[in-house]
Amino acid sequence: MRRIILTLASFAALVAVASPAAQAHPANDRYCLQGRMWGYPGNCQFASYQQCLATASGTEAYCGINPRYAFSQRSAY
Predict the structure, then answer these.
(1) What is the 3-class SS of 11-76, one letter each residue?
(2) What's the pLDDT score for residue 14?
(3) Which positions of the chain have pLDDT values less than 50?
(4) Alpha-carbon gap, residue 53 to 68, rounded angstroms
(5) HSE value, Cβ hemisphere, 13 Å, CA-based, for 35
(6) 76: left (phi over 0), alpha (psi -120 to 50) or beta
(7) Please, are residues 61 and 35 in contact by the beta-carbon 8 Å criterion?
(8) Under 8 Å between Cβ of 63 and 49
(9) Distance CA 1, CA 6 (A)
(10) What is d(CA 69, CA 61) in angstroms, rounded to the nearest whole number?
């Protein structure tokens, strides 16, 4: 019984290491709808600036880049 548990635990650890980590939001939050109603950083669910502008149209809101992307550190080549 002990050997089966160790084998299953080893297999589970191997699968966890071998599988790539999935991103929570693959670039679906680059732009934020901002304004008095939304606060800061706002509603950050837009992949493109055009999507954000379409949602902001007719309101007092505006679009800005998500601070998470604006202030992220870029790797040096």
Answers:
(1) HHHHHHHHCCCCCCCCCCCCEEEEECCCEEEEEEEECCHHHHHHHHCCCCCEEEECHHHHCCCCCC
(2) 53
(3) 15, 17, 19-25
(4) 19
(5) 13
(6) beta
(7) yes
(8) yes
(9) 9
(10) 20
Token pair recorded at residue 20: 């790539």
What range does the domain containing 68 cover? Answer: 23-77
Q: Looking at the domain assignment, is residue 6 inside a domain? A: no
pLDDT at residue number 77: 60
Question: Is residue 43 assigned to a domain?
Answer: yes
Q: Please give the Cα distance from 64 to 33 (Å, whole number).
A: 7
- Position 30 scores a pLDDT of 92
Asked if residue 17 belongs to a domain, the reply is: no
Residue 3 lies in a domain: no
The pLDDT value recorded for residue 12 is: 60
Provide the domain count of the chain: 1
- d(Cα 54, Cα 62) in Å, to the nearest integer? 10
